[in-house]
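Internal ticket - ligand job 60, flavin-adenine dinucleotide:
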Amino acid sequence: MAPSVICIGAGPAGLTAAYLLGKQGARTTVIEADPDHVGGISRTVTYKGFGFAHHCGSLR
Ligand SMILES: Cc1cc2nc3c(=O)[nH]c(=O)nc-3n(C[C@H](O)[C@H](O)[C@H](O)COP(=O)(O)OP(=O)(O)OC[C@H]3O[C@@H](n4cnc5c(N)ncnc54)[C@H](O)[C@@H]3O)c2cc1C
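stdout (structure tokens):
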């Protein structure tokens, strides 16, 4: 039976862990506190049609 894993946080660490564990066959669930964005403090922000790869968002 495949293990079930919960990753807390959809930043680079949580998303990478979920991806790699999923590739190994684990059933992964990512829980993210931010209701609007994934990516943690690394994300692309769109402003007036321009995309900015930026570090933003909350540091918890
Ligand atoms: C100013 C600055 C510049 C940087 N520049 C670079 C760079 O040029 N290149 C580079 O490789 N790295 C850079 N970094 C580092 C990189 O951004 C971080 O190493 C990376 O974002 C860390 O990822 P993380 O998943 O560990 O944490 P985070 O990105 O902080 O993600 C954590 C996630 O967990 C969520 N979370 C927290 N607590 C909970 C909870 N209790 N329940 C649910 N969700 C929760 C948060 O909302 C967030 O989405 C920079 C960082 C800073 C601050």
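Auto-summary: The first strand starts at residue 4 and ends at 8. The two ends are 35 Å apart (CA to CA).
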